[in-house]
Amino acid sequence: MQRLIPLLSLFYFTTCTTLTDDLATTWIKKANIAHGTASLDQSSFRFNFREYTYGLTSKKYTKSYSRTKATTKGLLTDTLYNGKDFQRWINGKSIIVSDSLQQLYKESINAVLYFVQIPQVLNDAAAQSSYLGEVTILGEPYISLKVTFQQEGGGVDYQDEYRYWIHQKTHLIDFLAYRYYSDKGGTRFRKVSHRNRIEGMIFQDYENFSPSTPFPPLDSIASLYIKGKLKKVSDIQQQEIYFLTP
Predict the structure, then answer these.
(1) DSSP string, 88-112
(2) How many structural domains compose the chain?
(3) What is the pLDDT of residue 121?
(4) In what order do the strands lie in the sheet with 186-198?
(5) Are 182 and 107 in contact, with CB atoms under 8 Å apart?
(6) Which CATH number covers residue 101?
(7) Is residue 157 classed as helix, strand or coil in its secondary structure?
(8) Contact, 130 vs 145, CB < 8 A?
(9) pLDDT tens digit string along 134-173?
(10) Which end of the chain is more exposed for a tag (fewer CB within 10 A), N or C?
(11) Does residue 191 surpass a pLDDT of 90?
């Protein structure tokens, strides 16, 4: 009997974990349909964000990111292929960049294009999603998802942790939060401020908020927002979005 109790406990834990993982997968599928992001596996688009024009080109087994801007030296272009191979160009001429700066530029490009691809990126092999249950935010019904990352394939920021709140009726992600550890680290909460549906895909703008302390519990940050305890630090807006013809 003493041996049976630990086995039963293990069975219960494994079963509960499987159920929460299955529920998370189900809700991610619903969100992808609502957001129209399933087509991202075979698409190419561009948009302006702050001083850069960003681009994503995705094919079956490859994904390339780019950003360009005009400088005093000419047209600067950064490219990132499959999240690993970085290259900088000025007027089409390859420029040598130190390893440390390459890593900085990779993180900067990824930080912008990751959020544009939500919720499709929640299907990535390194993403680990768990269903946390039902919550109410500003009188509306949501489910909460926890997302962490495996070290293998999770990139340099694999220790980051996310929360997503999916509306139970629309299946859209209206709020998200994340804890990050690069550049001294911190926590952010984002609220959707505007949506553009282009070629069937939703692009979301956000109001970006910060808590008074850098690392509050992620599961409490929506409550802090409701209580007016978060400070707005920026607006996240994509402009002049367009898809390229295949």
Answers:
(1) EEETTEEE---HHHHHHHHHHHHHH
(2) 1
(3) 93
(4) 127-137, 140-149, 161-167, 173-180, 186-198, 201-210, 231-236
(5) yes
(6) 2.50.20
(7) coil
(8) yes
(9) 999 999 999 999 999 998 877 777 889 999 999 999 999 9
(10) N
(11) yes
Name the residue range of residue 154's domain. 4-243
Q: What is the DSSP letter of 52?
A: E
Residue with tokens 């596996």: 41
- SS3 letters across the chain: CCCHHHHHHHHHHHHHHHHHHHHHHHHHHHHHHHHCHHHHHHEEEEEEECCEEEEEEECCCCEEEEEEEEECCEEEEEEEECCCEEEEEECCEEECCCHHHHHHHHHHHHHHHHHHCCCHHHHCCCEEEEEEEEEEECCEEEEEEEEEECCCCCCCCCCCEEEEEEECCCCCEEEEEEEECCCCCEEEEEEEEEEEEECCEEEEEEEEEECCCCCCCHHHHHHHHHCCCCEEEEEECCEEEEECCC
How far is it, in rounded angstroms, from Cα 24 to Cα 173? Answer: 13
Of 173, 168, 164, the closest CA to residue 221 belongs to 164
DSSP 21: H
